[in-house]
């Protein structure tokens, strides 16, 4: 079968007189990602029940699996993390009149879309639904098209070794000493140092450790019952904090993998390790279940009820990532529920039944913070898309309503706290309840300040992260904490 030429482009023919074709691999070479995994994540996000068919497609061969995925879950080709340094080299080669060929194990439809988007390639060789064009099969196809040593090859990994033996010259991306030596044994090597390999800091960033600050909510039941000074409970709380952090990091990784297309269109999220291609998707796919397993085991060792709360938290997180985040209002309720479950986890672990007052206070406050998150996303997208901006299922014209709903919910949390101070529940003579009125004033100021910062477009993607980094917010939170400690 001859190489498939793009419309308007001639298929390069093997010729000793003409320029040697430069053949370029796609996965982890032209792009910093694996398009098979990209398609799987798109399918999981858009049609999760179709994942049940994946084993059946795979049983018919990897090429069949790729064809079905290309038909049902095409990734956003324009937003893929392309290697810009390599693209510049390819453009220079093309200007010199050299034929460029895209040869990949990805499906033909997907490879054609990449070639059309870039406008660089004269021909495309790819899997066709029956033949998976990888390793030896790719080498045989290239030899058939261009002859042995009749082409140069740009590839990035060990799977390209069979092709190296048939190429005249090899360009190896990010080659370590061992890989470079293996390539040198097969052909003349030209090494391209395009970017650094993933660093430990990159993997740590996938865990979003700054988000672990949210898990400090597990200590709220201790603070509310004035048992924060009991060292045995504090130690137990640290273990609960660790279990929740591990499960949360697993959920964040899964969320990032499912959100790749939307993250790549976001002004800040496009730099996340998976969206930018800095960390391989396969590593995230392995890391997420490992973190979840360790977190659940730790929770089970502490309390069977805590294991149940952790499982519920993860199930709600998964539902949010797959569907709920795209349903207006319900997405905000889910986010508020995830915050509240952290408080519930602490109550369960410490054996402290959460009061209705505490749950009502948390519900209204966290709903307001979740609304700030959506509002801030709209403001961020407005800088890119103008009046057509949208975030998830919200449009720019919804921003005023979001601010009204979120602000009202935040003020209701202040009202709940004020009613609690005057209720019959306040009967401990050792507590200076009058001081807690100052907390109401400070909380009213803090909520208003947070919404003002969001309105001015200064809010972080996560309001709690902003709250713990912003100097004004830090001072107000410290004053509220100090007032509660003095009152108790």
How are the SSEs placed, and which strands pair?
Layout: E1 4-5, E2 22-24, H1 26-30, H2 35-46, H3 54-59, H4 62-72, H5 84-95, E3 100-107, H6 108-118, E4 123-127, H7 135-146, E5 152-155, H8 161-164, E6 169-173, H9 177-186, E7 188-192, H10 200-206, H11 220-224, H12 231-258, H13 260-263, H14 281-302, H15 304-322, H16 330-350, H17 356-385, E8 390-391, E9 394-395, H18 399-421, H19 433-455, H20 463-469, H21 471-487
Parallel strand pairs: 2-3, 2-5, 3-4, 5-6, 6-7
Antiparallel strand pairs: 1-4, 8-9
Helix pairs in contact: 2-4, 12-14, 12-15, 12-16, 14-15, 15-16, 16-17, 17-18, 17-19, 18-19, 19-21, 20-21
Structure characterization notes:
This protein has a 7-stranded mixed β-sheet. A two-stranded antiparallel ribbon has the order 8-9. The longest helix is centred in the C-terminal third of the chain and has 30 residues, at 356-385. It is elongated. The protein has 2 domains: 4-192, HAD superfamily/HAD-like (Rossmann fold, 3-Layer(aba) Sandwich), CATH 3.40.50; 200-487, UbiA prenyltransferase (Tetracycline Repressor, domain 2), CATH 1.10.357.140. By secondary structure, the chain is α/β, with parallel strands linked by helices. Helix content is 59%, strand content 7%. Mean pLDDT is 88; it is low at 6-16. The chain is built from 21 helices and 9 strands.
User: What's the gyration radius in Å?
Assistant: 28 Å
Largest sheet: 7 strands, mixed
CATH fold label of the largest domain = Tetracycline Repressor, domain 2
Strand order in the sheet with the most strands:
1-4-3-2-5-6-7
Helix content: 55-70%
CATH superfamily of the largest domain: UbiA prenyltransferase
Q: For the residues shown, what is the average pLDDT?
A: 88
Q: Give start-end ranges of low-pLDDT stretches.
A: 6-16
> What's the overall geometry?
elongated
Q: Tell me the strand percentage band.
A: 5-15%
Order of helices and strands: EEHHHHHEHEHEHEHEHHHHHHHHEEHHHH
| Record field, number of beta strands | 9
Please tally the helical runs, counting DSSP H or I stretches of 4 or more residues: 21
End-to-end distance, in Å?
A: 81 Å
């Amino acid at each position: 079968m001859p190489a498939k030429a793009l419309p308007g482009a001639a298929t390069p023919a093997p010729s000793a007189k003409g320029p040697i074709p430069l053949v370029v691999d796609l996965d982890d070479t032209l792009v910093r990602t694996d398009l098979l995994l990209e398609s799987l994540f798109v399918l999981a996000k858009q049609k999760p029940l179709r994942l049940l068919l994946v084993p059946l497609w795979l049983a018919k061969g990897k090429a069949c699996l790729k064809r079905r995925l290309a038909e049902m879950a095409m990734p956003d080709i324009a937003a893929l993390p392309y290697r810009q340094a390599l693209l510049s080299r390819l453009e220079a080669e093309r200007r010199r009149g050299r034929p460029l060929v895209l040869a990949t194990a990805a499906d033909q439809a997907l490879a054609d879309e990449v070639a059309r988007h870039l406008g660089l390639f004269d021909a495309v060789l790819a899997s066709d639904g029956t033949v998976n064009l990888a390793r030896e099969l790719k080498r045989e196809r290239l030899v058939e098209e261009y002859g042995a040593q009749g082409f140069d090859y740009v590839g990035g990994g060990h799977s390209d070794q069979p092709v190296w033996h048939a190429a005249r010259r090899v360009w190896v991306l990010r080659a370590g000493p061992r890989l470079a030596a293996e390539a040198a044994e097969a052909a003349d090597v030209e090494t391209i140092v395009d970017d650094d390999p993933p660093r430990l800091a990159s993997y740590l960033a996938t865990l979003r450790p700054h988000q672990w600050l949210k898990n400090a909510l597990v200590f709220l039941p201790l603070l509310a019952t004035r048992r924060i000074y009991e060292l045995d409970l504090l130690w137990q709380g640290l273990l609960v904090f660790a279990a929740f952090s591990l499960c949360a990091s697993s959920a964040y990784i899964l969320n990032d993998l499912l959100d790749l297309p939307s993250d790549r269109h976001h002004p800040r999220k496009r730099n996340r390790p998976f969206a930018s291609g800095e960390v391989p998707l396969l590593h995230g796919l392995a890391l997420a279940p490992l973190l979840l397993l360790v977190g659940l085991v730790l929770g089970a060792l502490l309390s069977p009820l805590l294991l149940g709360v952790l499982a519920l938290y993860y199930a709600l997180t998964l539902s949010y990532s797959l569907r709920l985040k795209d349903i207006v209002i319900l997405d905000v309720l889910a986010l508020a529920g995830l915050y509240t479950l952290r408080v519930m986890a602490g109550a369960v672990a410490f054996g402290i039944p959460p009061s209705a007052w505490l749950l009502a206070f948390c519900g209204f406050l966290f709903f307001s913070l979740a609304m700030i998150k959506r509002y801030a996303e709209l403001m961020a997208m407005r800088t890119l898309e103008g009046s057509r901006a949208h975030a998830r299922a919200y449009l720019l014209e919804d921003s005023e309503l979001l601010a009204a709903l979120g602000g009202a919910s935040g003020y209701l949390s202040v009202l709940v706290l004020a009613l609690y101070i005057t209720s019959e529940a306040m009967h401990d003579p050792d507590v200076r309840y009058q001081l807690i009125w100052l907390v109401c004033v400070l909380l009213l100021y803090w909520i208003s300040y947070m919404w003002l910062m969001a309105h001015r477009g200064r809010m972080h993607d996560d309001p709690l992260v902003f709250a713990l980094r912003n100097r004004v917010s830090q001072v107000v939170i410290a004053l509220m904490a100090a007032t509660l400690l003095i009152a108790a």
